[in-house]
Write a structure and sequence with these properties.
The structure is a single chain. With about 190 residues, the protein is of the alpha+beta class. The protein is about 25% helix and about 30% strand. Strands 1-2-3-4-5-6-8-7 form an 8-stranded mixed beta sheet, with helices on both faces. A hairpin with a 2-residue loop joins strand 3 and strand 4. Helix 1 crosses helix 3. It is globular, with a radius of gyration of 16 Å.
Length: about 190
């Protein structure tokens, strides 16, 4: 899969991405805003294992954010099951040198539209830590609405913290096909 955007390309991971991913992911500032499954320190071996683990997952749901021909982050979603099968949780990270350029905003918007269209979803949500105001802003720029605060719901780096629940909900009657996916509006 490949989505060519203005500021980046969202594409399938390649084994050749391992060194770039390890270099960019080995950053405490990134680790502090992600789940504990994301290792720190982050090694080339971690990157290779991660990329290899994606090969057997169908449908493909986790992609590289490619900036200037180099994997500089990741965006993906987890499909829910049973009564929540119309929903997915989305997550993303971007290398620090690329922060503040609108890249994460554009990649998240494209991935939201792709997830909805490909899987006929009615809702995509994210749970950033309350301290991660930059991520909250990326979500808001893409039409995600704050639905609530999950008080003391997570622990990261030994600190108990709140998470914020944001969701992009497809309006009633809106298309959910790849031919005409609902697109989050990207603002400023």
């Amino acid at each position: 899969m490949q989505l060519t955007l203005t500021s980046c390309v969202v594409r399938s991971f390649r084994i050749a991405d391992a060194e770039a991913i390890a270099r960019h992911a080995d950053n405490r500032k990134i680790w502090l805003n992600l789940r504990d499954a994301f290792p720190h320190p982050y090694t080339v071996g971690d990157a290779r294992d991660f990329i290899k683990s994606l090969r057997g997952r169908l449908p493909e749901r986790t992609f590289a954010i490619d900036v200037g021909g180099e994997a500089a982050g990741s965006v993906g979603f987890v499909l829910r099951h049973d009564v929540e099968r119309m929903s997915a949780e989305i997550g993303y990270w971007l290398a620090e040198p690329f922060w503040g350029r609108g890249i994460a905003t554009e990649a998240l918007g494209a991935m939201t539209g792709h997830a909805i269209a490909t899987h006929k979803l009615t809702r995509v949500y994210a749970l950033p830590f309350a301290w991660n105001t930059a991520s909250c802003r990326v979500l808001e720029k893409n039409g995600y609405m704050l639905e609530g605060r999950l008080r003391r719901s997570a622990i990261k780096d030994g600190v108990i913290t709140d998470q914020l629940q944001y969701a992009f909900v497809v309006p009633d009657g809106a298309p959910t096909t790849a031919a005409d996916p609902p697109r989050p509006e990207t603002r400023g």
